Structures are given as structure tokens and as C-alpha cells.
Amino acid sequence: MKRLVLILTLVFSFLLVRAADITPISNAFKAGNASSLATLMAAEVDMAVPGASKKCNGNDAVAMLNSFFGTNKPAGFSVLHNADKKDSGFLVGKLPTSKGEFRVNITYKSDGNKAVIQSIRIE
């Protein structure tokens, strides 16, 4: 009986810990569509793209990404690493573009199963 209770406790604990869905982020980078990230941005986002770095609101972050995508047309996007911890997480991706390949680091907070972007660094 103790074994059954232990197994059920473990199963329920795994079900309660759900990772944030990063698919919309990945799809937006793959398509070069920063506007689709507008609803996923936190009130304040740390942004770093080649040539610019600042803490800004979500709308300014989207504008910075649109500018970056305008000069660097994405040719895909692949997530190299993703990790979630309690109410936050990060992803590391590879972004091949018309002007070369970039490494993308994104940190986010989990809001249910939604990822709310806290920072984006494109190197």
C-alpha cells in the first residue's frame, strides 16, 4: 500500500510541473515575425542585438527585433537547449540568416503554460 501511495504521489507531482510552451517563440524567430511576440513580452525586457543593447518595454523590444529581422532575414531557427525551473526558464537557439548565423539566448517566466519573455540576447 505504501508503494502505491508513493507511485501515485510521484505521478501527480510530475503532472503538476508543466513546462512553458516555447513553440510560439521558436515559430516567431523561424519566420522573422517579431510582431507575433508582442503578447509574450514582459512589461520590461532586456534586449541585446548586434550594435544595440537596452532595457525597454515590450513594444520597443518588438521594434528592435523587427529592425534586426529587416537586415537579417531568418532562414530557420532551432532550439539547441531549453530548461525550465519552477516559474522560469531559458532557451538557447541557433538562428541562420541571410547575413550569417546568430546565437539566441532568451529567458522567460512561466505564466501557466505561457512563456513571458524577460530578456533576448542575439549574438
Unreliable sequence segments? none
Overall geometry comes to globular
CATH topology: Nuclear Transport Factor 2, Chain: A
| Measured distance between first and last alpha carbons | 54 Å
Largest sheet, order of strands side by side?
2-1-6-5-4-3
Q: Assign the structural class, choosing from mainly alpha, mainly beta, alpha/beta, alpha+beta, or little secondary structure.
A: alpha+beta
Could you tell me the strand content as a percent range? 35-45%
Quick recap of the structure?
The chain is an alpha+beta fold and 123 residues long. The protein has helices spanning 2-16, 23-31, 58-71; strands spanning 41-49, 52-57, 78-85, 88-97, 100-111, 114-122. A hairpin with a 2-residue loop joins strand 4 and strand 5 (100-111).
Give a structural overview:
This protein has 123 residues and is an alpha+beta fold. The chain has a single domain (19-122), classed as Roll (Nuclear Transport Factor 2, Chain: A). The protein contains three helices and six strands, in the order ααββαββββ. It has a six-stranded mixed β-sheet with strand order 2-1-6-5-4-3, covered by helices on one side. A hairpin with a 2-residue loop joins strand 1 (41-49) and strand 2 (52-57).
Any chance you could write out the topology, listing elements then pairs?
Elements: H1 2-16, H2 23-31, E1 41-49, E2 52-57, H3 58-71, E3 78-85, E4 88-97, E5 100-111, E6 114-122
Parallel strand pairs: 1-6
Antiparallel strand pairs: 1-2, 3-4, 4-5, 5-6
